[in-house]
Amino acid sequence: MTREQLAMRAAQELRDGFYVNLGIGIPTLVANYIPAGVQITLQSENGLLGMGPFPYEGEEDPDLVNAGKQTVTTLPGASFFSSAESFAMIRGGHIDLSILGAMEVSERGDLANWMIPGKMVKGMGGAMDLVAGVKRVVVVMEHTNKAGESKVLKECKLPLTGKKCLDLIITDLCVFEVTDNGLLLTELAPGVTEEEIKTKTEAGYSVSSTLSPISVA
């Protein structure tokens, strides 16, 4: 699946009235595919509630950015506040859903998405607070790395963002629910077979009796 199709599938997790935090990368595209009739409020860790779509070229305000330093717009009723208040909102359990990217995930629902040892990083950002404080956490990612190796692992090799913090994993090949009994394969991308998932997934998982195609219509 393409990045846009991944965002479309992730957008199906949005519910009317949700307060939602979107991570950097593919998750930011989810805002373009909010289902009809669903009203959500987007929150950004740097202190913005009521974030709107990306601005048209030439209409950017360099002072109005999201946590990923991308220029954004605001919707009527939007509010601005300090990062301290923003993180109190996250840590207090007031955000319903966070959709994040990932470098690696484990069969227990562990997440690694903030650094690769030896490479310069700007900082850990808000992901550690998001996975600890948000009611539901969804990851959107590619199933394998550039070398073709699985990113859905028995154990994450990179430094963890959080342990047992994920509820749903959406990759370009399939969808896994994270359950108390491990990963459950519930959906397959168009043209993908169970055998392909088996060969490209290091983690253990079970297959749902209602396994179905991913819908990105």
Describe this structure in words.
The protein is of the alpha/beta class. The chain contains 4 helices and 13 strands. It has helices at 3-11, 83-91, 127-133, 194-200, and strands at 19-22, 41-44, 48-51, 74-80, 97-100, 104-106, 111-112, 136-141, 152-153, 168-171, 174-179, 182-188, 205-213. The strands form 2 sheets. It has a 10-stranded mixed sheet, with helices on both faces. Strands 7-6-9 form a 3-stranded mixed sheet, with no helix packed on it. It is globular, with a radius of gyration of 17 Å. It starts with a helix and ends with a strand. The mean pLDDT is 89.
Work out the strand percent: 25-35%
Alpha carbon gap, first and last residue: 12 Å
User: How would you sum up the major sheet?
Assistant: 10 strands, mixed
Strand order of the largest sheet: 4-3-2-1-5-8-10-11-12-13
Helix content range of the residues, please? Answer: 10-25%
Q: What structural class do the secondary elements suggest?
A: alpha/beta
Uncertain stretches:
none
Order of helices and strands: HEEEEHEEEHEEEEEHE
- Nearest-integer average pLDDT: 89
Number of strands: 13
